[in-house]
Amino acid sequence: MEIKKSNIRGDRENRKNHKYSVVRSQLSLSSVSDHDAHRAGLQPVSKWRAYGLEGYPGFIFIPNPFLPGYQWHWVKQCLKLYSQKPNVCNLDKHMTEEQTQDLWEQSKEFLRCKEVNKRRPRSLLEKLRWVTLGYHYNWDSKKYSADHYTPFPSDLAFLSEQVAAACGFQGFRAEAGILNYYRLDSTLGIHVDRSELDHSRPLLSFSFGQSAIFLLGGLKRDEAPTAMFMHSGDIMVMSGFSRLLNHAVPRVLPSPTGESLPCCLETPLPADLPGDSVVEPCSVEDWQVCASYLKTARVNMTVRQVLATDQDFPLEPMEENKRDITSEGVCRLDDENSQVKRARLNPDS
């Protein structure tokens, strides 16, 4: 990445000319105790590295701040717990509630035999593309609503609160989550996360599994994006000016050594967890299923605060007055086998 000093006035010109400077981001060390960080499976904030890009104020990139082994918990939660009812997933439109009742139980034996029988049909977990938590995002209206809500997972809320506080956002409330489950042929189209009613709160993104390319664009869709790698354990925070920037994931990168896990996932979760930790033990059997899945996949958790303090959802207008917002909000995750194909992004565009 070419280094060039810039100021806010020249930021858009710098993005146009692909000239950026990586800068260190200051974290709020006193906002998260070492004990609370450990409870969430994180290193002390004083040991985190945090970076930003000149031209993108409010964008913070934190390379894997997790303690060794603790990513296991969050991977297991995404696959085993968060995919369960009453949370909502992409399979609900094509299957009955009974058929999607416990995707983990229906899939674990398929995944354990994955190495032996490569021609087997895909398990339900391998067909999973997204799960919504808390205020469930409506993919048709591109909105959240008060009447479509289930309790947000307390462990993920705690993790999110610690990361947000370390980035200067004390009092952040985790109210909605969208989990994306990427296969090696999956992409996430260019979009802006604007459906939340409070844009003063950050968007948090947690990555696990295979690496991916992330494109960070501008306020307009035609602004040239900046490409960067996302590796397992990496965290991105989009706030302030960067909160409403276009972004996308055009490619998931297969392991260069074949079907294998990133090195940071080879270390097991410690057996002696703190008594008040939100992280739970992960059995060898459970991790075998998770590892089999992640050798050809990536999981991303995005967490958002939907409402400002004391804010309520607005009353819905009459149906005939609703405007077409199909190009706004969050973009669906696509893969090569999708019946509906979306235009692919060119990382060099």
Primary descriptors:
349 residues, Oxoglu/Fe-dep_dioxygenase_dom, iron, five-stranded antiparallel β-sheet, disordered C terminus, Alkb, metal-binding, alpha+beta, 7 helices, AlkB-like_sf, single chain
Describe the protein's architecture and organization.
The structure is a single chain. The protein is an alpha+beta fold and 349 residues long. Helix content is 17%, strand content 19%. The chain contains seven helices and 14 strands. Helix 4 (103-112) crosses helix 7. The longest helix is centred in the middle third of the chain and has 13 residues, at 154-166.
How is this fold's topology laid out?
Elements: H1 11-16, E1 22-24, H2 34-39, E2 51-53, E3 59-62, H3 71-81, E4 88-89, H4 103-112, H5 124-127, E5 130-134, H6 154-166, E6 176-183, E7 187-191, E8 203-209, E9 212-216, E10 226-230, E11 235-238, E12 247-252, H7 284-294, E13 297-304, E14 333-334
Antiparallel strand pairs: 1-2, 3-11, 4-5, 5-6, 6-13, 7-12, 7-14, 8-11, 8-13, 9-10, 9-12
Helix pairs in contact: 4-7
Percent of residues in helices: 10-25%
Strand percentage = 15-25%
Q: If you average the pLDDT, what whole number results?
A: 87
User: Biggest sheet, open or closed, and with what strands and sense?
Assistant: 7 strands, antiparallel
Which stretches are low in confidence, meaning pLDDT under 50 for 5 or more residues running?
A: 1-11, 319-329, 337-349
- Terminal CA distance reads 16 Å
Number of helices: 7
Q: Biggest sheet, strands in spatial order?
A: 3-11-8-13-6-5-4
- Secondary-structure-based class equals alpha+beta
The value of Rg in angstroms is: 20 Å
Q: SSE order, as H and E?
A: HEHEEHEHHEHEEEEEEEHEE
Gross geometry: globular
Total number of β-strand segments? 14
